[in-house]
Amino acid sequence: MLSDILLLFRIRMTRKVNGFFYYLKKLPLIGRLLKESCYAAVNLKGVLSVFSFLVDVLMNLLKNLLYLFVVIAVPLINLQKGANDVQIRNGFLFGFVLLSLVAGSISNSKLLTADDETFILSRQMHMAARRCLCSRSWYSYSMNAIGLFLACLLLSFMFSFPFWYAFMAGFGYLGSHQCMDMLQMRRFQRKNSFYLQANTWKLLIPLGSLILLYALYWLNVDFSFTPWLFCIFALVCAAAIIPYLRFESSYHAYSELLTCLLMDNHEILQLDSSRMKQMEVALDEKSYTSEELQYRTEKTGYALLNELFFRRHKHLIYKPVRFRLAVMTALWLAGTCLLIVLKDDMKLTKDILELLPPFVFLSYILSISQRVCKAMFMNCDVSLLHYSYYRSREAVLVNFRLRLKKLCYYNLLLIMVLCLYMNSTVVLVGLPYTLSTLLLFDFALLCLAVFFSVHYLFVYYIFQPYNEQFDMKNPFMSILNGLVYLFCYFCMQLEGSLLFVSGVLAATLLYIPIALLLVYRLAPKTFHLK
């Protein structure tokens, strides 16, 4: 087993180093200095492999540290503001058990995942099914366990729990996932199926666990039992590693399991990266009805083009909009009923403007602009940008205006429903408000909807990052979108007030005209194929 894990390590590091050389050769100046012989430099690649492994460990640490801090620690501190250090520590340990040891083990199996690496080991290197699956799962789980151990070790100073809890967290993670894998393998051997492996469950289990955790934090549940729960649960999971080793060596359905995983992912494994990106926004032509294919309208020119585009991309627009509306409605009904029932036991003294910071991030999540812009390029602009008339100033600006109107329509629709729900909740629950603060809250959210519509379209037209192979050639789009995400997330950490609302309004009302002016001046020059 150890030799297989080391072999897998060498394969992963070699692929990363080769990829590093490949992208380095594409740089304007440095790329010319590198020769093809660099791929055969064994000693250099050995040094870079060690460096790459250390970077992997560091990134694993940062990923787990970010997960534990952002997903568990920050909401805990914000939702239990009056809690002391012991209560914060207990709440953190409970969140770790629920999300990492329970929900994570059910919905995030490394054994039951087939990727291109699985294909290389099993089909190109002819590795036995047992060696292939076990080495991959052990390597992935061990790396994650090390990352969790280091992250918990650092957080032990913040939450004042014993450092040996970090060891228990790492081994508990490893054992819980392997215990769940053992149950899944038994299920497959007996019934040729798996527990809760549909994509719906993989989404609902983590999401439901998060909602449950945050609700318990918000209700100030007493977690004094958690240290015992954490220790017992982690020790039981760690002890499960021993029976898993026995089960692993005696299991006889590895070949059938590997074949099933490869068959389920066969089409994905055959696709290159550009085709994978295209599939995210691909048209499902079989879903069109005869009425849609024979659609008639009085619109002409670019208005007709964009009307057809949005109608034929309904699965990218209408379905996400309906899904967001359904989720909002369900959460609003549940939340409002809960607040009405508990309002006598709660001190509801917050003004409506104090609730705005998390709604900035919620507005970001509700926006459909990013995916629609991607579909615009891959299913429309990539073909039409070959023609000079489509790159003319008039065509670029007319298309931008028509697309912006559509994006604003859908984003404003979602935000208007959100405003309606919030206003109803404020009135029904009895939160303190005035008509002016309520209108100001709604106006700020509507400005954010327009902001996200303008921003993504502005970045797309100014930086147009894709080439004909759908590779991203301009990194500024990702950088700017990442900064917007960080800004929206950072807003959740701020206190809501009239000053905060004024800042949001000033930022959006200043950004929107500047972005539109830049599009008017620069888009005809920048909107072209790379």
TrEMBL record:
Keywords recorded for this protein, A-Z: Membrane, Transmembrane, Transmembrane helix
Residue ranges of the TM segments: 61-79, 91-107, 145-174, 194-219, 225-245, 321-341, 408-431, 443-463, 475-492, 498-520
Q: Which domain of life is it from?
A: Bacteria
What this protein is called in its record is ABC transporter permease
